[in-house]
Amino acid sequence: MDRIMETAIEADPKLPIIRITRDFAATPEQLFRAHTDPALFAQWAGPDRLTTRIEHWDARTGGSWRYVAVDGDAEYWFHGCFHEVRQDRIVQTFTFEGEPDGVTLETQTLEDLGDGRTRLHAQSLVDSFEGRDAILRSGMEVGVDEGYAKLERMIIDGAV
Amino acid sequence: MDRIMETAIEADPKLPIIRITRDFAATPEQLFRAHTDPALFAQWAGPDRLTTRIEHWDARTGGSWRYVAVDGDAEYWFHGCFHEVRQDRIVQTFTFEGEPDGVTLETQTLEDLGDGRTRLHAQSLVDSFEGRDAILRSGMEVGVDEGYAKLERMIIDGAV
């Protein structure tokens, strides 16, 4: 059986895409809630040293979102719109407001592995390889790893 | 002086992107209205044989849209969200509901050429070359050409 125990993050060799794969001991419904309920999302998203505060959140097809990641006195704002929100797939846009013209199209797919396990596939598409590689150099991997580790602990604790 | 008299449509050789460039004898403000006012947009968008009927339209950052293109008894539905709407740049998502998992990230930039002329740059980004080439084969170029020709006539007629 193909098991992924940690977060796999890879840059596509031919497309300006980052792909992330992570297995969770949770149902697709639990992972869907963790990605769409703002109170849950704010508890796990991003690196450990940052605190997420949601300003706006409407996780429906055609809705939008904005939040700030706070690190002491520093604030990092992000916003986007939800292109599609359905039980097995969330497609949304993403901009870090420090780079206001940079836009990522994010697709998250929930693959039911059965027995209460789910494989999360997250794809980030941008319009240049330079932009993609700048995201990878920005410390994004640490945020993804630490964020999913927090989510895993919430699942174990029954918080999702 | 570099003048583009017709619609230029090109597939990027290294990225899953279609780029369209078209000059108009209109100000950026006129082209912005033509792209964000639903009554104006419905008059010019798409090929001549189709009629556009707007179902939902909220052309603001974080808003969304849905419309149907009608060809006799046939209906083609499209929807997306507006990631960013500002005077010189509109970023939105786009899905043809006949291919519900296909998503395009569309960026339209209005370059003021002065003297009441504007160059429209439209970029369509998808997540595979196969998907990009399928869009080109779908007759998209005819729709773009005929749509912009209608928009040009509306500008000449003072309707925008």
UniProtKB/TrEMBL annotation, chains A, B:
**Matching SUPFAM superfamilies, A to Z?**
Bet v1-like
Give the protein family.
Answer: Belongs to the AHA1 family.
Q: To which species is this protein native?
A: Actinomadura adrarensis
Report the domain of life of the source organism: Bacteria
Domain Activator of Hsp90 ATPase homologue 1/2-like C-terminal: residue ranges: 26-154
Q: Which InterPro entries match?
A: ASHA1/2-like_C, START-like_dom_sf
Q: What is this protein called?
A: SRPBCC family protein
